[in-house]
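This follows on from our talk about sequence and fold. Can you supply me with one protein entry, sequence and fold together? Could you add the entry underneath, on a fresh line?
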Amino acid sequence: MMRACYRISALTALLMLCIVSCIEPPLHLPGQNLEMMIPQVETEMEVVWDIDVDFSTDWYYGWDVKDDSLWGNIGYTRPTGYEVHRYYKGDKPRRKHLSDDAFSIRSNRFRRYFQFGYYDMLFYSEIDSKDGTQVVVMHETLDSVTATTTGTRGLSKGILDMKRAGTSQDDGAIGLLNQPEIFYGAYPEDIYISYNLDDYDYDPVENIYIKHLETKLRPLVYIYLVQLILYNNDDGKIKGINGNSALSSMASSTNVNTGHTGNSPAVIYFNTRMKKDLTVKGRKSDVIGGKLTTFGLCDNEPCVRSKAQYAGSRTTLKNYLYFDLIWNNGGVKTYQFDVTDQCHAQAHGGILTVWIDCSELTPPDPGPSSKGSLFIPTVEDYDEVVWEIEI
C-alpha cells in the first residue's frame, strides 16, 4: 500500500503600524487610538512522505518501462501547484460560509490579508493529467467542492448480461467512468483571526505577531494495483487479453473539503497487460496487471483503514472485477470475480489479487457474439440510468 501525507504550517503575520500605549493592548478596542493593517496570513506547505510499498511478497506482476510509459509510475507524485478557497464565516464558528475567495498558487506559500473573524480554508493540489486531458471535474458551491469524472463508454454487453441474469449485484451502477487523476486536499476549519495579541507569537526579528496552524494534505484519489494470476494454462487455451478491465461499485464522486465519498456507485474502466511465463509461488503462471485510480469506496470516510472499521458503513454494494480473456479459438469473454473483501480491507487503495484456474473457466459461447471486445457496446446494449450527484 502507498500513502503520502503533507503538512501545512500557516503563519498569521500581524503588522502593527502605530500603538499609542506602552502596554500591549488588544488589537482593536472601540475608541482607542490604534492604527492597524488587516491581518496577513502566510501558509507554507511542507511535504512529509509516509510511503509503504511491498512488492516482494504481494505484487507479482512487476512494473517495467512499458508499464511506466503507458500508465505512469505506481506511486503518489509531488504536487506542483495548488488551488486555494478561503471561506469567510464572520464572527461565529461552525456556521455556513458567507463568502468564498479562490486563488491559484504555484508554490507552497500563500499570503493574503484577512479580516478578523473565522475562516475555513480548502487547499487542493493542481491536477496533472498524463495526456493533457483532465477527466476530474470540479463542481463548486459556496459550501464545498465536489469532484467527479467524465464518462467513457457505457456498460458493456458482458456486464449487462451478468446484471440481467442476476449474477452481478451492481444494480444502480452508472456506466463506465474514467479513472480520476491523483490529487490531494486539506481543509482546516474554524481558523480564528483574533483581536487578542495573546493568540499570537511575537517575532522580534520581523517585528510581527505570528499565528501557527498545522494540518495535512491527504490523497483524494487512491491507487489500486490489480493483478490476475492465471495458472493451469499450459495448453494455451487462454491466448491473451485485449486489455479491457473494470472495477465495480466504486464511488463516482468525492467531497474535496471533507474527503467523504458519494453514495452513487460507478464502474471504473482501466487497462491491463499480460506477462507470460512468470513464476508465482513456484508455479508457472501468466499474470495480468494494471493500475487503477479511484475516489474509493462509496460512502467512505477518509479515516477508514480496515475492513473491520468499514463494516459500519451504510453501503452493502459488492465490488466485482471485470476483464476480457481471449481464447485460442479467437473467442472473447468477459469474466467477473468478487473482490469485495479485498476492497473493504484496503479502503484507501492497495493490491487486489485474483487467482484464476484456467482449467475451470467456462469458454465463450460459439458464434459471432464471441468475437471482439465485450467492453464496446452497441446502442441496444445500454440500460437507461439516471445519475444524480448531490453537490
User: Anything to note?
Assistant: The domain at 1-52+80-125+184-219 is CATH 2.60.40 (Immunoglobulin-like). The chain is about 5% helix and 40% strand. The mean pLDDT is 75.
